[in-house]
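Subgroup meeting minutes
Present: P.N., E.W., G.H.
Scribe: E.W.

1. P.N. recapped why we're keeping a running log of single-chain structure predictions: easier to compare across weeks, and new members can see raw inputs and outputs side by side.
2. G.H. added today's entry (183 aa).
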Amino acid sequence: MNRVLHHRSYPGAPRTKGRDYSMSGCKSTVSCLAFSPRPPYACYVELPIQVRRLVEAGTAIGHFATCHQDIPYVTPVWLDIDANTDHILIDVKPNAVKLRNVRSNPNVCLSIVSAHNSSMWAVIRGVVDDIDELGLDASHVQMLAERYLGRPKRTPGMRYILRIKATRVRWWGEESDGANEKC
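Output recorded in log:
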C-alpha cells in the first residue's frame, strides 16, 4: 500500500522516497508530492494518561507552534481534551494567524507545561484533523476562561475550535523515571 509522508507534506517540502521522517512507523513508498489538509494515512497515537492529567488539571500552559511558508509561529493557548475522540482542542478567533497557518499546513507542535510544577511537561506533534466553526456559540471559550481566569470572557465573539490528533508524544512527570515517548 502506498502512503504519502504527511509529516513532511507541506508545500516546498523536500521530496523523499521510502524514508520514515515521522518516527511513528509511517513508511512511504512514494514521493511526497502533494499537500493534503486531512492526511488519510497519518499514524495517530493515543494520548498517555499522564498527558491527559496534565491538560485536564486545568492550568497547564500550552505553546502552540504552526508554520507558514517555512516561517514558524508560536503562541500561548488554553487547552482542552475531547475525551471521546482523544483530540486536543484549541479555541481560536477567525482572524487568528494560527488559524490561517493550519489551513495551509495542518502539521503542528504543542508544548505543554504545568503551571504549578515546571518539571511536568509534554511535547505533542500532531495534525489539525478538523476545524469546527462555532459561530457565536461561546460556551467552550467561556468554560476555558472560567478554568484559566476564574471568570467568564467579556466579549468572545465568533470562534473556531482546532481539533488536533497526536502523531508523536513526549512527556516528563512525577510518575516517570525519565523522558517518555509514545510514537
